[in-house]
Amino acid sequence: MSEHPAIPFNDLSRGLQRDRESLLRTAAEVIDSGYAVHGTQHRAFESELAAYVGVDHAVGVANGTDALELAIKAVRPADRSVVITAGNAGGYTSTAVVRAGLTPRYADVDPTTLCLTADTVRDLIDDEVGVVVVTHLYGHVGEVSALRALCDTRGIALVEDCAQAIGADSPSGRAGTFGHAATISFYPTKNLGAVGDGGAVVTRSQHVADRVRQLRQYGWSTKYDAALSGGTNSRLDEMQAAFLRVRLPLVDGFNQRRRDIIARYGTAASGVAPEALAVLPALGGHGAHLAICRSRKRDAVRARLREAGIATDVHFPLPDWTQAAFARYAPSAPLPHTEAACNEVFSLPLFPELSEAEVERVCATLRSVA
Ligand SMILES: *Cc1c(COP(=O)(O)O)cnc(C)c1O
Questions:
Q1: How many CB atoms lie within 10 A of CB 123?
Q2: Range 37-67 burial, b when 16+ CB lie within 10 A, else e
Q3: What is the pLDDT of residue 142?
Q4: N or C: where does the chain have the smaller number of CB atoms within 10 Å of the terminal CB?
């Protein structure tokens, strides 16, 4: 074992301690306001979030998985029950699709970006497909305009899963502005983390926003009158909305710090044979949610890092359809790029509060990987 203190994969206590005073101050304001849900903080957060993403509407919900379920329900053409998604993105979309009573259909991912593209989706489209969910995995926003154009020609709605991509930009626009709706998670480890669970649906469409607002409160049109079926209870708490208002102005700085750390990991690993270790770059406006490596010797490289006191994780190890809950939706043909990614990826420590000494120690260990 190393003589240094271990480097954790993540350490939420550092950010909480940094923000302690402002979080306590805003908590007192919420308590004094008398609102517990859907008060002034929640309203203000919805409009600040919409402005930040660059769309007209944001609708707070209880978590990112609910956001996916309600967004899919809100945008789906009524007579189509299949949702195309990727199988390497943690299973959140599959969970939401099944909860919505619909059927996931898995498309392969691009071998470089590990995300869906128009080219990977096109051949799977038929008249049953109502929605495509593109996950901006790890913070990468790809050629989403081409995917949107493909969906438009076939009457399909596009949902962007931005749980890992808040604040991420691409040359053709910001994450969350391409789809009929986009979803965000404020789970504490995300780039904008609450002190608990939270999520949101963002959209340019008044109609979609109205439907999500209805679905998050039992499908009510007015109180106690459930006009829309498929509703549920999925509210973002007033306290979490207030905490998120404290942190939203910090996201761009956090994302830059995350990109800088990934760039340093990439430089450190540049002398290593790429089959043994390649760091996925986070260039331009990449959301840099996770520091992803690929390796054909994943177990050995992770063991080497563990010996040096450096924690790693795998996002994500199992294609969705290899998990029992989704096995019945297994594709008939192999999806080789999805399977290779699940076998090769692993994640290095990445959070804005990592110290310079910690980043340097990870780099030194990466340089020493044979
Ligand atoms: C975290 C995450 C979600 C789910 O968010 P929760 O708030 O945990 O429900 C959905 N999609 C992706 C890609 C995620 O990383």
A1: 9
A2: ebbebbeebbebbbebbebebbbbbbbbbbb
A3: 87
A4: N
223 Cα: distance to centroid of ligand 1 (angstroms): 30
Q: Is the CB of 69 under 6 A from ligand 1?
A: no
pLDDT band at residue 124 using 50, 70 and 90 as cut-offs? very high
244 touches 64 (CB < 8 A): no
Average pLDDT, the chain: 97
What is the reported pTM?
0.98
With contact defined as beta carbons under 8 Å apart, do 255 and 168 qualify? yes
Question: In 3-state terms, what secondary structure has residue 221?
Answer: strand
Contact yes or no for 316/310 (Cβ under 8 A): no
So what's the pLDDT on residue 312? 98
Burial class (CB in 10 A: 0-12, 13-18, 19+), 171: exposed
- The span from the CA of 242 to the CA of 16, in Å, is 14
Q: What is the pLDDT of residue 2?
A: 54
Rg (CA), the chain: 21
Distance 355 CA to ligand 1 centre (A): 26
